[in-house]
Q: What sequence folds into this?
DNA sequence: ATAAACCCTCGACCTAACTCCAGGGCAAGC
DNA sequence: GCTTGCCCTGGAGTTAGGTCGAGGGTTTAT
């Protein structure tokens, strides 16, 4: 099957403008044109596009994705490089997940305070302490 | 204790420019100035800054963080709003983690192929298929 | 009392990743 | 053969989140 850019936009959830932008940025060297100069996407192109969105959705920069696609265009000889890229990216993703989880834990502690029955009291005390710290140092009190 | 912007930058891993940028954007209404107009950070300010970086590290936009801080400045009366914001943000974080994990699973399938002993063969076949698809549709073959 | 190291503001500049628009070519239905 | 709806390019504009430099005041050590 051949798909127009509009059909691909619908299938991939990327906008037409984004697809053209990706092409301009060299992410879609595999997309051919028909006699009128229109982009003609094949099913194979859609599979590569799927890979691109996977990489993008996991936070890879367009510049790196372009490099990965360049390896793909190069053929089977670049398998080691692709393997290395994906393995490194995989580690980056997992590290980022851990970083987010650590921060989430901190936020959950804040939520515990807000959810506690003494929330108002705890907040009031903390605020009084922050005010006192300002006053003790001769600073203007931003809490009024 | 009172800290200069430089000391805070070192403690928080944010650059001095970023701290000033956050202040300009209204994220640091709690930071007071000394007689010379220099920012004077207290320990309480550092705790709030820690909250800000937690929110930022989990993907919250500066505009939302500003709103959260505005609630904090408002005092204990805004506890319900803060609770709502953090709870909603928590859900956003978890959803994003799931989204990333789903995409990671896809990438792992690609990696499985690259790691397989028949990697080169599999890639070669896939490429031949993609080429054939182009030719069959009278398109130029971008794989040479 | 002077040099070095800070601090301030303001405004320009930057990067990534789009998004939009103008101007113009093709395609499909009536 | 005309209208409507696609498609194209090039280039300008946008948003988020900084980053940098100029010009000028302050603090600290010698």
A:
């Amino acid at each position: 099957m051949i798909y127009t850019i509009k059909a691909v936009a619908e299938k991939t959830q990327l906008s037409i403008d984004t697809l053209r932008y990706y092409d301009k940025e060299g992410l879609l060297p595999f997309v051919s044109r028909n006699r009128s100069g229109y982009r003609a996407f094949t099913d194979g192109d859609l599979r590569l596009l799927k890979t691109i969105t996977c990489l993008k959705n996991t936070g890879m920069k367009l510049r790196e994705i372009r490099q990965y696609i360049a390896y793909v265009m190069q053929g089977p000889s670049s398998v080691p490089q692709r393997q290395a890229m994906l393995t490194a990216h995989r580690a980056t993703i997992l590290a980022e997940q851990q970083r987010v989880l650590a921060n989430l834990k901190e936020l959950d502690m804040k939520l515990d305070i807000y959810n506690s029955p003494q929330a108002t009291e705890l907040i009031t005390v903390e605020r009084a302490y922050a005010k006192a710290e300002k006053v003790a140092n001769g600073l203007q009190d931003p809490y009024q």
Chain B has one domain: 5-136.
